[in-house]
Amino acid sequence: MAEPDVSAAGHGALGLERLIHERMRLAIVSGLAVTHSLTFNELKRQLGTTDGNLSVHARKLEEAGYVVCSKSVEGKVPRTEYRLSSAGREALGRYLAQMEALIHATRNGGW
What we know:
It is a single chain. The protein is an alpha+beta fold and 111 residues long. The chain contains five helices and three strands. A three-stranded antiparallel beta sheet has the order 1-3-2. The radius of gyration is 15 Å and the shape is elongated.
């Protein structure tokens, strides 16, 4: 499993991790954070996205070590299941803390 990109190059201008900040990837990790695992079709249905879009974003998260993907066959039907790794859970926690700090600073009139 690859190490997540936590270098400055992986963060945007406000210090937010770009890998998770992207809307679809944030939706994937958020969905996986509240359940043990979700299948490809469950994620696709919940996110209202296409096969290709979900595949691309899930692969990026998997390459970063944030999501674990397991493939199996049920009967003759392929089944892809995703779960959030401990590194993914930690990255989401950092991201949420960064967003909370940004919201707090914005509401209080300064960064």
